[in-house]
Amino acid sequence: MEHVVLTAQKRTGLGSGYAARLRRNGRLPAVVYGAEGKAFPIELNTLEFAKGIKGISESTLINLSIDGVSHEVFIKDLQRDILTGKFVHVDFYEVEKSKALHAKVPVRILGTAEGVRQGGILEVPIHEVEVECLPKDLPEHIDVDVSRLGANQSLHVRDLVPPQGVKFLSSPDMVVATVKFAKVEGTAAPEAAAVSETAPKA
Predict the structure, then answer these.
(1) Do both 144 and 125 map to the same domain?
(2) pTM
């Protein structure tokens, strides 16, 4: 997977007053939480941070360079000003490169279901699946091809092919996508209608 790269510096000052001065100067206060529970304060360029994380998901691995030292992190929590929407603080969580992690990865639907072409409605009950893998193998998303999904059919987690090095932790019976038809009195689903039309007359 492609990593996002961000640059930061260790933060020497603490407290709300110091953090407010950082924000006024275009800096974003942040904290990195290590895998062993240790935490240390840092600061980033707010504009560079906003540009760097645009379009990423919770499962995006970030290469965070702190004073020239590389750290692989995820965004743990991101706070915005409730009035302006501007970033005010971010928490990062550092991962161990050699240790498997658990994460929720977005599902990306591909194609147009055959059942939808017949007039059905595609429903996607879940938008992410839980996986286990090493940080380097963590996918940005899980692609789900629904093009062959017919009327009243469903795709489950057990039907998905995990990327190399990735194990699904979500229940195999969990429905990822299904095609349904609206129940209208006097109207049959395509399969039922086809049987009626081809059945021999008495």
Answers:
(1) yes
(2) 0.69
